[in-house]
Protein 1
Amino acid sequence: MYEHLAVVGATGAVGRIALDLIAERNLPFKTIKFLSSKRSAGSKITFKGQTYTVEEMTPESFNGVELVIGSTPDETARDFAPWATQRGALVVDESGYWRMNPKVPLVVPEVNPDDIHKAEIGIISSPNCSTTQMVVALKPLHDAARVTRVVVSTYQATSGAGVQGQDDLIAGARAHLAGDTHDYKAFKHPIAFNLIPQIGSPKHEGYTSEEMKMVWETHKILGDDTIKICPTCIRVPVSNCHSESILVETERKLSVAEARELFSSFPGITVVDDLAAGVYPMPQQCSGKDDVFIGRIREDLSSPNGITFWCVSDNLRKGAATNAVQIAELLIGSRATV
Amino acid sequence: MYEHLAVVGATGAVGRIALDLIAERNLPFKTIKFLSSKRSAGSKITFKGQTYTVEEMTPESFNGVELVIGSTPDETARDFAPWATQRGALVVDESGYWRMNPKVPLVVPEVNPDDIHKAEIGIISSPNCSTTQMVVALKPLHDAARVTRVVVSTYQATSGAGVQGQDDLIAGARAHLAGDTHDYKAFKHPIAFNLIPQIGSPKHEGYTSEEMKMVWETHKILGDDTIKICPTCIRVPVSNCHSESILVETERKLSVAEARELFSSFPGITVVDDLAAGVYPMPQQCSGKDDVFIGRIREDLSSPNGITFWCVSDNLRKGAATNAVQIAELLIGSRATV
């Protein structure tokens, strides 16, 4: 059924991790090919001990392909997805382009796995990184007590802006320490030893596109647009892993003990929470891991039915590559390694 | 009345800024002396073109002193303040030790200037840095529409942990970039290219001492303990200036235009808010300035009467030295330069 795979954007930051995960998690397939834009075509990729040449993506390059995992910019996904679906392939797309299309399900396997069956035009989207980790955290609370409101402030790593974002942080930090300036490519303002309170472009009533993704994508994934969400998205000088300060109000009051138990027993969540011992999730410690890490769980001091907590996850993994590969696993029906 | 000054802790990060401000703002006095712990005594300070020798602080060193500005750790303030007040001096103290004492007013000159007259035991406290900038932002909204609830997530600079905190960030960043490790002195965990979701010690129902300061000190300064406040305090790899993502609910609905106007016309606040042009407060740009900077002002998408915004201020200046010197100015009655 899904025996002939293609990975599009295999040479990017997320694409490379997707390859590692396909190998590590032993995703079964008969053939695999690696596609990219013209610029990266011809480069070599080592995968499971074999060397592959990255092919330039054309409509014809999808001939015979049954399942595509795409890690590309929005505009690239707009173009290649129809090429693939017209040839009968199913596309698991990590870009933002198709996510809010009503014919495209937006899937986080721990949260709404059954939505994979709603791929009306042959495309399944994986959510934005800042949304994915949040909906994983919200889901057990929503199922148990119905989430009515979310206030979230993010602390987002530079890897969210791609390899260039990570390089910019390192180069900017080196320059700053040497008393020099750095010409940032991925950011409008210096990010080393600084904060930028804008991710994405102005979108809706003073909110950025990144912030509105956290509202609209969460509504779509949870299938509930009555949840009120106020997001603030901030870029911080951290290389990898997004962190989020999340306050949740629920219809039924949850105790801290109950929230902790709900988090602990939910797949894909690891609770790391012992303030007295200085134990909580931090980005450097969560980088390279697939789970959503939650700590600092406590009762909201400002509402009768609120819980607040700190949530960290690797935005390149669960926020992108891991989630896409998990969707592919769901499709293939081999969830043993999830 | 307050013609004979002493500055305690004049060699610390905040104390040095206090000296600069006393000079810049032309605080009037007849004599000034500089006091410190035994360790720093004997060191030289240049102030208004003259060289002074820092004296070791003893009870007798406060003889003849009328006004003291103290920038010391809590334990030092516990000891020296009574030495000074017993000799008739008034103490403006930046430490945390006296703040919640019911006989000690906690003053932010833009917010509750009249409280300087309530110094029952000769001590006036200046609030914690994360509280000061927030109450300046809350005050105009509270006066106009009554604040009922605050949800705040902070992004706090390493200078909040003193000179050692700033040195740790730089040394840690250098080590990280060189592939080495750094033995952090001011932090429990690495802070360079990382986040630490703990400031202070565990204090109250899972909240840290820093977080509870934002609740209790805000109540005291605004004279209103009915305001519900949920704080999350996070250390970020920024050298100086604390940033805060603040959501405020008010009894009467405020429009964004009204909130912006209230902020703009309030003393000590500078509005920097044009998302489309990429204009908003950032810590590197606010460092060395005395104001509280506010941007990203928008309607809360999650409540009927909410406003959310981004607030940045120099924690060593308005969060400490500037506020203390402003209190001294109020006392002396020379507010011309505020």
Protein 2
Amino acid sequence: MSRIDQVLARIDSNLDDSLNRLFDFLKIKSISADPDFQEDCEAAANWLARELTEVGIAASVRRTDGHPMVVGHRKTGKPGPHVLFYGHYDVQPVDPLELWDTDPFEPRIVTREDGSKVIVARGSADDKGQLMTFVEAARAYMEIAGDLPLDITVLFEGEEESGSPSLEPFLIENKDELSCDLALVCDTNMWDEDTPAIAVMLRGLVGEEITVKAASRDLHSGYYGSAATNPNHVIAKIIADIRDENGTITLDGFYDGVIDMPQDVTRMWDTLGMTAEKFLGEIGLAVPGGEKDRTLLEQIWTRPTAEVNGMWGGYQGAGSKTVIPAEAHAKFTFRLVGDQDPQKIQASFRDYVRSKTPQDCSVEFSSHGANPALRLDFDMPALAQGKKALQDEWGVEAALIGMGGSIPVVGDFKTMLGMDSLLIGFGLADDQIHSPNEKYNLKCFHKGIRSWARVLDELAQG
Amino acid sequence: MSRIDQVLARIDSNLDDSLNRLFDFLKIKSISADPDFQEDCEAAANWLARELTEVGIAASVRRTDGHPMVVGHRKTGKPGPHVLFYGHYDVQPVDPLELWDTDPFEPRIVTREDGSKVIVARGSADDKGQLMTFVEAARAYMEIAGDLPLDITVLFEGEEESGSPSLEPFLIENKDELSCDLALVCDTNMWDEDTPAIAVMLRGLVGEEITVKAASRDLHSGYYGSAATNPNHVIAKIIADIRDENGTITLDGFYDGVIDMPQDVTRMWDTLGMTAEKFLGEIGLAVPGGEKDRTLLEQIWTRPTAEVNGMWGGYQGAGSKTVIPAEAHAKFTFRLVGDQDPQKIQASFRDYVRSKTPQDCSVEFSSHGANPALRLDFDMPALAQGKKALQDEWGVEAALIGMGGSIPVVGDFKTMLGMDSLLIGFGLADDQIHSPNEKYNLKCFHKGIRSWARVLDELAQG
């Protein structure tokens, strides 16, 4: 039996233990966006550092101004490329909690009607389960071969779900330690449950929160209605007018830098057989809501978006309360593509909001990030090696896909450390990440571990 | 000393005890809209029944399908008109609680910079403090005269702040018991702190809540953005388009039945010296937000309105969460005037919302009331008697005013019991009812008690 086959066999026989370790990790409530869970984020970092060190990747918890980083190293003295593996231990908030079938931090295996099994817990897919596919691959490799096939640095952050404010300063401060030949990032999806994928195109993200303030206090709408400007109406108008009736985003200069895909790429996508019925049917919808003259895959991969992730103002309780609130709020995210400039779009958005804010109101802004879109190098050797490893494991060719979501760290690796990234992940579109009842297919976890073992092996062979 | 002067002197010397009783009442958390406070509403009803009975108005707590009514009677055998006094013991919710300087249910006296004193508590002005002006007037009258000057029935309800669902059935069921010659209602404002007022025009109210549902679950806006319809955007568009750029409400047939005021009435209003600066300046605003071709007093008294009292959808926590929510919500109230038909407006609103709801969404409606506007009879003898009593107490002529708010019970009294109402209240525009730090001026409370003693005396003299 070849060494890689021995490693794969060890992964198979280790699976129950791998799952137990993942469950321990999933029980830690590492919600980065909510300050109430700061100690849980610390606990997750500590857990990972212990785990990596036990595997043989000497790791430590490193302070930042926010949640800590976990950095680990394994020097092998081998000639292959030195790779950095990236993942994040923080998870999304869990609200609305009442929509979870069970406690989001009590992981469990659910067997579905077709007999397949899924791991249900907050973070099971995003990103704890994904991150652990790599850690478990390294563990099996160490156990069989006594070492890894190439030099490895590991970087786990704890603020990915809240805009990664500490990442840039940390990369700059530790540039020499973290600069490698290639980054491996496991935070993306497969094409479908049988087809692996490598993400070669990532949209950027601009996140903006606005607060519109009107009267100096909440008002009775019977006394003040019409006369006093209602900030709910102001926010609604700002949201409503940001897209026109064709779904086109109306911000000044918004489409500057948007690049149409080459026809050979869009032709390849046509062969993927994705339809609006298929993509939207699973979530109970049917009609693509974006730009009317763009196909579904264009809308979700190559076109920029404007979405309101949250809005609120006034009374939300039971029954009626005749109030005009003193202020109202909205959280926007824009997904960017091509060469769209995040700073220009942030400025254009703020100008737009100010132009919609009546004289009697003031508006306050806060930024939740501003990152450009990314396209990876199609000719990078690691891309071919990754594809081969994935084909060996899954038996079908890996799809090279776009990504609706953004993974800002990939841009930071490129601009700050001069390092390309290989984005391989085993999530699925129905994993409900950021939603109640998040899950990660057991098959994805198991074959994900196997895939990383193969990828490391391929990369080491050059 | 005349009998009324003796009664007024007793009111003055009783004031501290009157305040203590009001404080006991204000401590009861009778929030009718929130089911968590059902027992508190019961407690408030029981407290009132005991209080009335102690005063000499034999009272009982009467069951309804919602919060109970309190009904009391004092038969005097005197020839004057039999009057019914109405008030409500329920109060508005207190959120946002963090904006209260102190506990809303721990009443206290605050001395302001100018030396005047105010009673701060939820319900101090709306309506517990106002209601107690009448009870305390009756108490002083009983103590001095051994009886009241005319037959009195008292009706206190506990659902005024949540649409009064039990009121109509209760009035119908107890029509004989509750039908009197005249209703006295104490739930309105003075013109200003020196000028008493009688409200002769009340706007109606249609309250509607909508829920727009899109995808079958919350979605990741990176994956589904643009493609999946965002219910936040749908709600925003519904809110934004309900008024045009001139502030005109766009619902089909909305202005049917709106009546322009006679010129002599609007001329009288011009003499009141109300300006946008005065009315809006106190709350930090300056520019009337309603129909551009209407004066401020028209906007708040004689024109119908459309206000969003609450809207919400998606993530409201700290930081960013890239979610497209499965549903979003809004609460609307429309103030009606003249002969506007509440049922037609409810139907027109629902048609409008449906027309704005995309194919991929569904919408659910719930009603928070539908009451027409009211104008009182200017020639009613009780109006002249009430004016005289108020002028005797305050030394200036009482203003006959419109009311932005609606008091549906007045319409119910007229249509179900054939009874006119005299609306006299001692609230002020800056009482912050429905807002944090609600207050009631101590002077309003004290002179309000004295005013009711005088009104009873005038009405008894015929």
